[in-house]
Design goal:
Blueprint lengths: L1 H18 L2 E3 L5 E7 L2 E4 L15 E2 L3 H9 L4 E7 L2 E9 L1 H4 L10 E2 L3 H10 L7 H4 L33 H4 L9 E9 L9 E7 L2 E6 H4 L17 E2 L4
Parallel strand pairs: 4-5
Antiparallel strand pairs: 1-2, 2-3, 5-6, 7-11, 8-9, 9-10
Amino acid sequence: MKIVIFLFVASILSLSFAFAQTVKDIDGNMYKLITINKLEWMTSNLSVKRFKNGEKIMHAQTEQEWYYAYQNEISAWCYYEDENGVDTKTILYNWYAVVDKRGLAPTGTHIPTVFEWTGFVNSLGGANATPRKIMAKSGWETYQHFEEHTANMFNAKPVGSRYVSLSPMSHWIDGKSKGKYTNFWTSTSLNQDLNPNYAYRIGLAYNYPAVINELESGIVGKLNEKGNGYSVRCVVDVIP
């Protein structure tokens, strides 16, 4: 009897562990997880199109709609458009979607703060060591010498970004940032009094050897504008 009970408990624990390896959003998209710095991070970018309450997130299909969302602080997402047409696999969000009270992150997860991202980077050896440990091994125009490290499962791909205040050749149908850059939103706004339209992001670039983090550098600018379209990763909530 004791053996049967032990096997039953062991099976339950095993199932719980298996379920903890993925999360699912309201649209049914599944995301694998990897543990880094004691937090479980998604290994692919968020691609949900509805909030947790079931309401649709605005799909900004044109440059004008994207800028309108920014001007009116409306949550929005868009596809990255390249020179070959619409890329329907890459979904980017403005910052207003990130902090919308209706909930962008899948149940049981949240969008990390800049402090959680900084802890993530520091746990992998710092800003200079992290890119070669988390950048995908394909897709980048050029890239650092990669290390054989489990953190490569993070699989940061150069999916490009959308901008609201850069030159016209840079912020909508540019065909220029994909393959070169990727940015991840944090849930942390910059100082509301000094920079009410800016938020922290985490950046990776094909020609820059370090993780870009304004919390560390103190340098902020148009790449921090809340209307920009960036990728989103989530982390599993820690139960106290």
